[in-house]
Amino acid sequence: MNPLNRLRIQKFMFARVLATAAVLVMLSGRLAAHPAPFSYLDIVFRDGAIEGNLVVHVIDVAHDLGMEPAALLQPETVRQNAKRIGDLLQPRLDLRSGERLRFMWTDVEALPNDQAIKLRYRIPDQEPGAVAIDTNLFPYDPNHQTFINIYEGTALRQQVIFNAGSNGHTYYLGTTQGAIEVMKTFIASGIHHIMIGPDHILFLVGLLLLGGSWLALLRIVTAFTVGHSITLSLAALNYMSPPASIIEPAIALSIVFVGADNLVRGNGRDLRGWVALVFGLVHGFGFANVLREFGLPSEALGWSLFSFNVGVEIGQVAIVVVVTAGLAAIRRYSDLMGRRVAWAGSLVVIAAGTYWFVQRVFFPV
Asked: What is the spatial distance between Cα 256 and Cα 361, in angstroms, rounded to a whole number?
């Protein structure tokens, strides 16, 4: 190779090494300047108010205010820009108790040793039962996280981490108002779930098709309630948690069994109460899968489980009353028509259960 060309190549490679080194130095400097893209928020419920501190990194605030980070480490500069800082952060802190709560900033302080700014706030005249929390403090940085500590008085009750992709979180206080809020939320959720669950509804309808006295039907519904309450609690408390790939087909099979039992039982012994109890255990795991997705508040686990069960029972009772009254009216009009409705209804129950079983085993979503 020509010595001149070799020299040119050596110079080119040396220049590339220098350029790469320069980029690495710049990146390391940038990372060192912002080593922790975190914010910290304390939410303290105390003496009829909400108060606490918010600590944010100067680089994040400086970026969004168009300032130099070093300037925000000066106490005087921070005091002069206190309103701008508060106005920047207020819309990004979403606390709601019925309506959105507004922070009253009581102090802003520079923390030079931590390269941070601390803001103190107070929300007066607030004794909520629950508070919905959502925040994305610095949207420009997708890696930014906000660590939230929730206190009742001096006791730390819960810790939550928010990032750019986090959903909102509701905290229920350990007070009477908190218990009421839990009940309002989870009773409604239980009613909603039973009403939009065609498999659970059809199982109940299958148990009711052959009719019987109100006392006999009460035993059936009570047995189903006992069964699903046991497994719902076990699964929600993480003592037992069979996968949905097993539970959902098993629920479908329970529906097929009930319909088939109606057709073959004839005048034999009425075992519907036992059937409801046994398969209620299976359905309870199905309820638990939905409740787990909905989210159980750890600070109010007992109340939420109880309330969800109450909601399910309210929904069940409504279904039982409507179906039983309708079937009773048909039988009063014509006993033969009542038997035919029970027979046809059992076939529908079997067909629907079979369809769901095949779908859930061979074509899972």
From this structure: 15
Residue 74 carries which DSSP code? S
Smallest Cα–Cα separation from 99: which of 119, 121, 122, 126?
A: 126
Secondary structure element (H or E) that encloses residue 343, with its range: helix 335-362
3-state secondary structure of 130: strand
Short-list 309, 192, 199, 306, CA closest to 258 = 199
Q: In sequence order, what are the beta bridge partners of 105?
A: 121
Half-sphere exposure of 125 (CA within 13 A, CB side): 1
Buried b (16+ CB within 10 A) or exposed e, 36-48: eebbbbbbbbeee
Backbone dihedral angles phi then psi of residue 260, each to the nearest 5 degrees = -65, -40
Of 140-144, 190-194, 209-213, 223-227, the range with the lowest mean pLDDT is: 209-213
* Pair type for strands 38-46 and 49-57: antiparallel
Three-state secondary structure call for residue 115: coil
Q: Which pTM value belongs to this model?
A: 0.76
d(CA 51, CA 286): 40
Cα–Cα dist 221/273, whole Å: 8
Rounded to whole angstroms, the Cα distance separating 251 from 271 reads 18
pLDDT exceeds cutoff 80 at 84: yes
What type of residue sits at position 220? I
What CA–CA distance (Å, rounded) separates 141 from 164?
Answer: 8
Pull the structure tokens for residue 300.
């109010």
Asked if 60 and 144 count as a contact pair (C-beta separation under 8 A), the reply is: yes
Q: Are 143 and 170 in contact (CB under 8 A)?
A: no
- pLDDT, tens digit (0-9, with 9 covering 90-100), for 217-262: 888 888 999 999 999 999 888 888 899 899 999 999 999 999 999 9
Report pLDDT digits (tens) over 114-134.
999 999 999 999 989 999 999
Cα torsion angle, 103, 107, 108, 112, sign: negative
